[in-house]
Amino acid sequence: MSYATLALPFVGAAALVLLVAAVRRRPGRRWWLATGVTVVALLALTIVFDNVMIAAGLFRFDDAQLTGVRLGRAPLEDLAWPLAAALGLPALALLVSGAPDDEGSA
């Protein structure tokens, strides 16, 4: 099983939770902006620190299980985990909080 195949159900579940949250709660622009900034920040930090940890020899990947696309030394597949977290967790929090739309709040 490749790393991408392993990550696919997690990213899919996060996307499904995001879709349900968007339909049921209708979050405002502020929520979407915060979620987007979170996604970008987590992906950027993952790229930087994965490259550092791989260069330091803390871990390695089986090249036979990778797509071959790399960002520096970090494989593209490794971005699936922060992507799933950055999409799924805010959406889950929105669903369970019962918070109304935040467009009108300061």
Rg over CA atoms, rounded to whole Å, is 16 Å
* Helix/strand class: mainly alpha
Share of helix among residues?
Answer: 55-70%
Task: Please state roughly what percent of the residues sit in beta strands, choosing from under 5%, 5-15%, 15-25%, 25-35%, 35-45% or over 45%.
Answer: under 5%
Q: What is the string of SSEs from the N terminus onward?
A: HHEEH
Q: Regions with pLDDT < 50 over 5+ consecutive residues? A: none
Average pLDDT figure: 90
Q: Biggest sheet, open or closed, and with what strands and sense?
A: 2 strands, antiparallel
What is the number of independent domains?
1
Shape: elongated
Question: Biggest sheet, strands in spatial order?
Answer: 1-2
Number of helices: 3
Total beta strand runs: 2
- Compute the separation of the termini in Å: 47 Å
What labels would you give this structure?
106 residues, mainly alpha, two-stranded antiparallel sheet, 64% helix
Overall description:
The protein is mostly helical and 106 residues long. The protein has one domain. It contains 3 helices and 2 strands, in the order ααββα. The chain has a two-stranded antiparallel sheet. A hairpin with a 2-residue loop joins β1 and β2. It is elongated and about 45 Å long. It starts with a helix and ends in a 9-residue tail after the last helix. The model has no long low-confidence stretch (mean pLDDT 90).
